[in-house]
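I hope you will forgive my troubling you with a question about protein structure. You will find the record immediately after this paragraph.
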Amino acid sequence: MGRHPRIDARSTGVLVASNVLGGVGVASGIAVGGLLAERLGGTSVAGLGQAAGVLGAAVAAVPLAALAARRGRRWSLAGGYAVAVLGAVVVVTSAVLSQLVLLFVGLGLFGVAQAVNLQARYAAADGIAPAGRARVMSVVLWATTIGSVAGPNLTAVGARVGEGVGVPALAGPYLFSVVAFAGASVAVALLFRPLPVASDPAGDLPAGTTPLTASPVGDPPTVAPSPVPPGTPPPRVGALTALRRAAADPVMRLGVGLLAISHAVMVMVMVMTPLHMQHGGMSLELVGVVISLHVLGMYALSPVLGWLADRWGPLRLAAGGLGVLAVAVTLGFVAAASPGSGTVTATALVVLGLGWSAGVIASSAILATAPGDIRLPLQGVTDAGMSYAGAAAAALAGPVLAAGGFRGVNVAAALLLLPALVLLAGAMRTDRRGLAGDGRADRPGALETA
């Protein structure tokens, strides 16, 4: 498969629109999911609602990637949104019947939408020249900002709509989720025409070669002649096989590890920030403002970071992202010493979101260069690892806060960065794809918009 230097503007627009709708659907439900769980099961189970959604996203990531490999991105994305529609319907039904277990099942299915929103960024990059992949992915990621901001603001309206049709008020926003997910599914199924992704097993290496062959320990992977005739579809590869093959390449190891670590650092600090602020006497209104600023930091500048990844190379962006995360946890440590300072806390959370965004975009750009036969399953299993890492970080953050306060949380987050630095050093030392700095947007093959 040749690399397309031009963007299919319509297909990219469809992905942006579907991510906006998907973001609205996710944010509308997440805003009240914990409250609904508390109403049906008490305060002790309120956090399990969020956990069910995260688990649903993690479990769905690999099957969605496998479906994309078999049937194409269009059916994977559309089918995932359809499952999320079912999840939202089950949530509403659980509220009507006051069934807690049914609620958790619905929230797990509902969480599939988050996995779809994440995998849409990879769909945007399929078939695009390396010089422009990060920018395309970052634009689709940026679309999530709209949904993340608009969704929670529909909570009150959704409650009134729900009561008007005989549904409990807290379940009303999920009616908007049903409509949003259904619209995203139909738009992708009818309008999205993805470029093929699995016909080039050599990824971005020269034609007629197969990357990631076994090498002695300590040596970079070698490139061996391929016995497969040109044009022959590559055999399907499972997620674990893709992960094992990627582990042989230091650059791919960074792509996999960076996504999980960036997400874990962000989640660990973010989920404990409201508690830190409340303990410092700050108002709920200020907590809401700080979290909103954090979300803007996560997504608003992603097109700029995508441009930087294409111009400077994703490895340099990865290094910058880790540096920004280090600054964020340092600011968080300072904020812990001044519990009443909302300004320092807000600055730390904005910087934290920016570092997360740089890590996600750099990792996504690296994974988009994986060989064609492992690209889809590797992307799926890496997204699953991202969700599992976030869930684990959230679970550990509470005990860390209890033992060491908000300072301890930021120290723990800083320690999580150390493995990423080791992975980055190995990738920079053995980079053979030019990802450390020749990804210039102005070189031949840079993007044009169709």
User: Anything to note?
Assistant: The beta strands are 6-7, 209-213, 222-225, 448-449. Residues 238-449 form a domain with the Growth Hormone; Chain: A; fold (CATH 1.20.1250.20). The chain is about 75% helix and 5% strand. The chain has a mean pLDDT of 81.
